[in-house]
Amino acid sequence: MRYDQARWTRNGEYEPLLAEKDLTRVEIRDTEGETGEESGSAEGDVTTVESPLPDELTRDELALPGLSEPELARHYTRLSQMTYAITTGPYPLGSCTMKYNPTFTEDVAALPDAAVHPDRPAESVQGTLELCYRLQDYLARIGGMDAVTLQPPAGAAGEFVGIRVASAYHEANGDERSEVIVPESAHGTNFATAALGGYDVVSLPSDEAGRVDLGALEAALSEETAALMLTNPNTLGLFERDIEEIARMVHDVGGLLYYDGANLNALLGRARPGDMGFDVMHYNVHKTFATPHGGGGPGAGPVGVSEELASFLPAPRVREAGGESADPEGEPTYERFDPPETIGKVHGYEGNWLVLLKAFAYIARLGDEGLADASAKAVLNANYLAERIEYEVPYGPFHHEFVASAGDQDAADVAKRMLDYGVHPPTTKWPEIVGEALMTEPTEVESKASLDQLAEAFNTVASEATETLETAPERTAAGRIDQTTAARTPRLSWHALGE
Ligand SMILES: *Cc1c(COP(=O)(O)O)cnc(C)c1O
Predict the structure, then answer these.
(1) InterPro entries this protein is in (predicted)?
(2) Number of domains in the chain
């Protein structure tokens, strides 16, 4: 590994700059010189007290590097050059919708008025509540849903909330059901959500054309079906043309239809899950609405539902304050409220407010036309790229993404080699319906020139020998890393750099 470029000191070594200290003892220095009983000794005005924390939670050293601002700036710039970002080049990681996050949303979130304490009373944060209300409304209109909660902190958390809401709905109807149906091409979180929700997972095979097999669905459906979880377009980038028939079949047995919103970028401003018959959905705002993606920061995964499910949503939601609390002559006022049969709380306050604010800013800036334009270009870009690459691309025509096959090559090797050509690789080996899958989603943000650059990278790798691929990447800061070890026992401390 070549991480040694990122050194902490000028001579290239890690040197703790502070002597080891026992931090189980806290020093309290009395600057006034007024001393308590224990202090006032010849040693100076220092009191030590026992830390209230248990021993296993205290550190025995806190050796902070003492660096100047330029040293720090260089360190982080060097690190940023060792990795790959959407600001470096195209990032066609299928199903993830790695679109560029426009920085104006950061400006909006950095406005001093955006930083409100969540415990402030509703009267003093009317602007915040109004934006929450309007975002609920935007999302409901985009998804064709009747009510939205902003609370869940990620798409997967939204799935869990959606399935909990569905199960609360069935329970309220005195209708115990034990199964959730998930297509075999679904994202792993769908299976996990269904299982965590207490359901038996019924896996649904695809038909020859890569879509839901209606015969298999018929066979899987029963009085035990609580829900069918689908994403549309599906993970192959194909629109489920039979969606109305699928909805009818699921509803006929008393089940609910769940929409995994990860692929909403394909439909924005053009089609709505609610109109297709979906009863509940989550929105991945970091995919569709350009809020920060990955990196372990806070996220958001709002959930929308149809009228019948609204009373089960998590608390609180935000509404216009009607009746006596509102001034009939003046502006509407907004209040938090708990839906009557709420499943409870899944996150503090309104959810991750600053992330939600960025989603709001993005939607408001694009408007109806901008959103419809985004989905059109996302679909056009995926189909253009699918045409240009020399790997076999089964199925099609596509929506926002397509799945090519690396054929005799190993998809993971292809991905590593693509890094050498200055582009990010696609998602690999999923869905399993396509052997050595290269799941590719360029998104609407790429120009024709960058799509051509991507196609060239794909096509160059397609013509290369296995031996070349097996040792790739050659031109990146880190070479062939042991991914399993990196994932299972990550080194998360900067101490490791010097060792
Ligand atoms: C990304 C994704 C999810 C999970 O969403 P997170 O916000 O990452 O938790 C679920 N389903 C599909 C199809 C996805 O692509």
Answers:
(1) Aminotrans_V_dom, GDC-P_C, GDC_P, PyrdxlP-dep_Trfase, PyrdxlP-dep_Trfase_major, PyrdxlP-dep_Trfase_small
(2) 3
